[in-house]
Amino acid sequence: xxxxxxxxxxxxxxxxxxxxxxxxxxxxxxxxxxxxxxxxxxxxxxxxxxxxxxxxxxxxxxxxxxxxxxxxxxxxxxxxxxxxxxxxxxxxxxxxxxxxxxxxxxxxxxxxxxxxxxxxxxxxxx
Length: 126
Description:
With 126 residues, the chain is α+β, with helices and mostly antiparallel strands. 27% of the residues lie in helices and 20% in strands.
């Protein structure tokens, strides 16, 4: 019994849609053993899958294979979440926002204004 990695990640609710899981595999955001994998790669029990979503690196150990999407309460039977606390803490880190103040009625930024805003944004170390 084997299962495609994109379908497995969708089934254990790592991704909302199977297309998202496939795109993540194609984009190099899913690794097994430190190696990027294709969406069609077969997954086996005991393997550890690393998934990069946003700025967090999640790790899951495959316990059992499944063929259908399961409810959130059943996911621990099929995959163990090995994600370190430091990575999960990134989810709750304060996000700094940056606002550019424009006078009321000034209209849309010109191309020059936009370039200046981008230079200012790039100069910040966030």
